[in-house]
Specification:
Elements lengths: L7 E3 L3 H12 L5 E3 L31 H14 L3 E3 L12 E8 L4 E8 L5 E5 L3 E3 L34 E3 L11 H21 L1
Parallel strand pairs: 1-2, 1-7, 2-3, 7-8
Antiparallel strand pairs: 4-5, 5-6
Helix pairs in contact: 1-2, 1-3
């Protein structure tokens, strides 16, 4: 029997982990794909390349970037997130399967057409939401034009809502100005709350 998850998070930075923590606390157990050297960066995102972070609240003497992301990862798991260390080049919603297209009625996302790469079988899997939270640069090629982007290549959002109902974006992938860990964490919180509210009404 196939398992359909209410929420899938793609990313491993502050936005992704904050969203996972908030969703977990709301009894929505997200699956988080943290990537394996996605874009040449270790799981944890750009902060893993920073030796000392002095502007993240709660650490008056600063904290190593790797340590901060390790703590966020542990907190995500403690709140019920399942973390999978696998890089997503196309959104994978099932084992050995890739996303072909998002399916909906023009206003509401209600499925994902996926192809099994082993058997070649294509089918529509019912989903109730999809959550994007990815890296420092707007690495959005895997979306294949399925979401509206800004002229600069970032995911276009209204707060955290994307051009597809039920799909939310957070973090640096939709922030061309600030690109700071604390801002990404805040946007992850907002996206999680928007996603939770959306799930309650759909």
């Amino acid at each position: 029997m196939e398992t359909v998850n209410d929420v899938v998070i793609i990313g491993s930075g502050p936005a992704a982990h904050t969203a996972a923590i908030y969703l977990g606390r709301a009894s929505i157990k997200p699956i988080t794909y943290e990537g394996f050297l996605a874009g040449g960066i270790a799981a944890g995102g750009q902060l893993t390349t920073t030796t000392i972070i002095e502007n993240f609240p709660g650490f008056p003497s600063g904290i190593d970037g790797n340590e901060l992301m390790l703590q966020m990862r542990k907190q995500s798991e403690n709140n019920g997130a399942t973390i999978i260390t696998e890089t997503i080049s196309k959104v994978e919603v099932m084992w050995n399967s890739t996303l072909i297209e998002l399916v909906g009625d023009g206003n509401l996302l209600n499925g994902a057409k996926v192809k099994n790469v082993v058997t070649g079988e294509e089918k529509v899997v019912p989903i109730s939401g999809l959550f994007y939270a990815i890296g420092h640069a707007p690495n959005v090629q895997f979306l294949n034009g399925q979401l509206k982007l800004t002229p600069e290549g970032y995911i276009e959002v209204n707060e955290t809502k994307t051009s597809v109902d039920g799909v939310f974006a957070a973090g640096d992938v939709c922030d061309k100005v600030y690109r700071q860990a604390i801002v990404a964490a805040g946007s992850g919180c907002k996206a999680a709350l928007d996603c939770e509210k959306w799930l309650q009404t759909h």
